[in-house]
Please model this.
Amino acid sequence: MKQKGTNFQKFYKGTEKKGAAKKEQLRQERKQYKKERKEFFDQKRAENRQAQETGTPSGKFAVTKTIARETPTGEMPLNKYLAHSGVCSRRDAADVVRSGKVKVNGQVVTEPGHKVTMKDDVRVGPKKVYPTKDLVYILLNKPKDYLTTTDDPQKRKTVLDLIQQATTERVYPVGRLDRNTSGVLLLTNDGDLAQKLTHPSNEVKKIYAVTLDKPLTKEHFDSILKGVHLEDGVANVDVLAYTDNADKTQIGVEIHSGRNRIVRRIFEHFHYDVRNLDRVMFAGLTKKNVNRGKWRFLTEKEVRDLKFFKKGKK
Model:
């Protein structure tokens, strides 16, 4: 196991540039910022012109970024059908089907692999669902105190409350962040992509910034790198680093496991309290230029990169 890797240097403050090199870095960052700002406003002006020409309202959320999807033909598994309908991810859809909440042509079906077509009447509860034609991809910088779910029986705040102005399509979170975990979260109605990004075999990388209640000792640091034995198996990290040599409570973790509360449980195993947990990267996506609680659409290039990423590279 590596302690610091090239993918993690941005979180390791001990390697900061100084002097002329740092000035040049700042100059390049300002140049890039001005370029991105110009492109952003050029795009907004073009969208407003298009809105005026088509008669679409030209407000802040007038233009929704979508990618057209081919209409499904032939048979498909019921859980895939639900995912394409924006109900939830394919893995979660399997649980919905098994729970007995889904009817096909008036009959309850509890087998996720049950084959259906566009001609079938598929309902989740009383509501009829059908695959959406437009695919939406939204990156949210999730704040604390929001649940990563599409619905909460207790009516607590969910991440959908933060993006309700973004699209009229039914989207759902890809993976989960705990209520008290902040950071990068992808929401989409693309069931195939959600399946790819959450399947353990694809080893999608995540990077977290962790704040502990006390300094992480060298002994525990080394133990974590060797693998931590938890109740549901060994938890391995890919990269571990102190992000501030002067403050050993600040830790960076790169991991590909998607197990529930895995980062928190690793540190809790050694009796540390995780005071703050922020996901700074997911599958190559970062929260750069997205303030806490805000969102943006993915670019077409980002969508292509996600669809064609190589195992372990994101």
The longest strand covers residues 274-282. The chain has a mean pLDDT of 82.
